[in-house]
Amino acid sequence: MSERNELEKVPGLMVPGLLPAARYPLTAGYWIAADEGRLVIQRCTECGTHRHPPAPACYRCQSFQWDWHQVSGAGQIFSYTWVHAALTQAFVATVPYNVCVVELADTDGVRIASTVTGVNEGDDLIGSRVQGYFADAGGGNKLLLFAGA
Ligand SMILES: [Zn+2]
User: Fold this and answer.
1) Span from the CA of 139 to the centroid of ligand 1 (angstroms)
2) How far is the CA of 69 from the centre of ligand 1 (A)?
């Protein structure tokens, strides 16, 4: 994955006053990799099951052993919606924007919520192949976004 500067195309993704993401022991590895433009997904080291968002134990075998597995960021859009009402003042300039659920290709069905860029409302996105990338969102945060592959 490579970092792309998509903020000029999607100016609303820069959220003024956004605080740095909380880096708890369970999530810090994700954010450290994101800072480097890499997407990692938590993986059980006992049975190999991927899971996201991170959780202390494997839902399949209940093991507490896990590591971070770097994935390509390729995937397909499973679902999406368009948001028209800003929930806070910080998002007034952002609406409308989409929220998509992407099924990552090189995991065992992990789905991750994000935004797909370079699309228009009314486009049929279900099943579209996309590629993830990280963009600077302010506050020291790198956000995972997707664009058409
Ligand atoms: Zn497991």
Assistant:
1) 35
2) 14
Q: Which residues sit with Cβ closer than 5 angstroms to ligand 1, an ion?
A: 44, 46-47, 49, 58, 60-61, 63
Domain positions in the chain are 22-71, 73-149
What architecture is domain 73-149?
A: Beta Barrel (2.40)
Per residue in 79-112, pLDDT (tens digit) is 999 999 988 777 788 889 999 999 999 999 999 9
Alpha-carbon separation of residue 136 from 100, 112, 118, 146 (angstroms): 19, 18, 17, 13
Centre of ligand 1 to C-alpha 64, Å, is 8
Which region among 41-45, 75-79, 134-138 has the lowest average model confidence (pLDDT)? 134-138
* pTM (2 d.p.): 0.85
Angle at 131 (CA atoms; ends 114, 90), nearest 5 degrees: 30
